[in-house]
Automatic annotation (TrEMBL):
One of its GO terms (molecular function) is transcription cis-regulatory region binding. Belongs to the LysR transcriptional regulatory family. InterPro entries: LysR_HTH_N, LysR_subst-bd, WH-like_DNA-bd_sf, WH_DNA-bd_sf. Residues 1-60 form the HTH lysR-type domain. This is Transcriptional regulator, LysR family. SUPFAM superfamilies: Periplasmic binding protein-like II, Winged helix' DNA-binding domain. Pfam families: HTH_1, LysR_substrate. The keyword DNA-binding applies. Keywords: DNA-binding, Transcription, Transcription regulation. PANTHER family: HTH-TYPE TRANSCRIPTIONAL REGULATOR, LYSR FAMILY TRANSCRIPTIONAL REGULATOR.
Length: 301
């Protein structure tokens, strides 16, 4: 083979950062050495792997084709190296991206169990909304994602982790909190604080009310669930939030789950990964551990 693992690592780092200088910093190399390695790889392969836009770099179609294969080779090389240091058979690094509900209520237990059984797996974590996680998986920022709802992109594989549901919540002092049942007309008259567009929670809520409530008074949109939860607790707003994010507050009497018979907002939380990715034992390990953890600990009711 004329190319080296170092050259593939440089290629992958430039693809990740979009910059030769940032890739050099990531790999603890000089910028000139990084540029030389990339130039040598492109010369050996006889193809340009990046389009240059000033200092920014973006993958060509050849680079897109090469990247999953390069990442697999790099991963296998790391496993070989760790194996000779008497490490566990399943070892290496993985980048996990999760939406807020998954990151708060599922990921900590998954990581704890992985640490107990496979301590040589190193997991980095990013938290974004569902759209951000899907984009990150497609852009190689994350090797594995946990999202809310469905992803219909053919470039993504999806496997259900667990089921969850959304509920409409109000403060205990809100007028609707005293009602046994709340109508769609009453919801239309309320003031709302909701997740931002692109969040899985918001997508499911919008789909549930589509064709039922013509004009919703959305007063504020925020990314962070604790902000929405506090606004509802202290004010006269309604919100639609995951059961897991509000159950403790309902049990303490700070929030009330409104009974809206016309709305059914069940959803799934799922693992996603690139369809082009070769079989990866670390990803398989995390998926199996996540599903086992959900079943054994009854995380979602």
């Amino acid at each position: 083979m004329r190319y080296s693992l170092k050259q593939l690592a440089v290629f992958d780092a430039v693809a990740t950062t979009g910059s030769v200088s940032q890739a050099a910093e990531m790999l603890s190399l000089t910028q000139s050495a990084t540029s030389m390695s990339l130039a040598q790889l492109e010369k050996m392969l006889g193809r340009m792997l990046f389009d240059r836009h000033g200092k920014k770099m973006s993958l060509t179609h050849w680079g897109i084709w090469l990247r999953p294969k390069a990442k697999r080779l790099i991963h296998d090389a790391k496993q070989i190296e760790l194996g000779f240091y008497d490490q566990h058979l399943i070892s290496g690094e993985i980048s996990l991206g999760a939406s807020q509900t998954g990151a708060e209520h599922l990921v900590p237990n998954i990581i704890s169990n992985i640490d107990a059984d496979f301590p040589e797996i190193r997991i980095s974590l990013g938290v974004k909304n569902t759209t951000g996680i899907i984009d990150g998986v497609l852009d190689y920022k994350y090797d594995l994602g946990i999202i809310e709802g469905r992803c219909d992109d053919s470039r993504i594989h999806q496997e259900e982790l667990c089921r969850d549901h959304l509920i409409i919540v109000a403060a205990a002092h809100h007028p609707y909190a005293r009602h046994d049942k709340v109508s769609l007309a009453q919801l239309a008259q309320a003031r709302w604080v909701l997740r931002e567009s692109g969040a899985g929670t918001r997508t499911i809520f919008d789909s549930a009310i589509y064709g039922k409530i013509a004009d919703l008074d959305v007063w504020r949109e925020y990314e962070h669930v604790p902000v929405l939860r506090t606004l509802v607790t202290q004010g006269q707003y309604l919100s639609c939030l995951p059961y897991l994010d509000v159950v403790k507050y309902i049990e303490r009497g700070e929030l009330v789950a409104l009974n809206v018979p016309e709305l059914n907002m069940e959803r799934t939380l799922s693992f996603i990964w690139r369809a082009s990715m070769e079989q990866n034992p670390i990803i398989d390990c995390i998926k199996k551990e996540g599903i086992r953890m959900v079943k054994s600990q009854n995380v979602v009711r």
